[in-house]
Specification:
This protein has about 110 residues and is mainly α. The chain has five helices and two strands, in the order αααααββ. It has a two-stranded antiparallel sheet with strand order 1-2. α1 runs antiparallel to α5, α3 packs antiparallel against α4 and α3 packs parallel to α5.
Length: about 110
């Protein structure tokens, strides 16, 4: 499954960025114009809020588990989520979370 999560994270980076970069080239590099474009209709506003709530939920989950399991590397999924999108951040986090961690003091394996 790790390979699947990694491939989904890569796809979730490349595919949306293609559209973002295409839009910026056509409309100019104005982030507020892009935000305005996201809210041109009720349908697009609904999608924006859906993804925003998913991103906030994912961030809280990452923070809680990173603190609990001391998996600090997984924190890089937070900027990936907000700078690229949930399509990158979620599979990246699942990839990082799925790595096997060895506990040297106990001699056990934690997944």
């Amino acid at each position: 499954m790790r390979v699947v999560f990694l491939l989904l994270a890569i796809w979730g980076t490349i595919h949306p960025m293609y559209y973002f970069i295409s839009w910026f080239r056509a409309e100019g590099w104005d982030i507020m114009a892009m935000v305005d474009a996201w809210h041109v209709s009720a349908a697009t506003s609904g999608l924006v809020w859906d993804l925003t709530i998913a991103a906030v939920t994912l961030t809280i989950w990452i923070l809680v588990e990173a603190i609990k399991n001391r998996n600090w590397l997984s924190l890089i999924a937070i900027p990936a989520t907000f700078c690229i999108g949930v399509s990158c951040g979620l599979p990246l986090y699942l990839y990082l979370r799925s790595r096997v961690m060895y506990l040297p003091d106990v001699g056990t394996v934690r997944v």
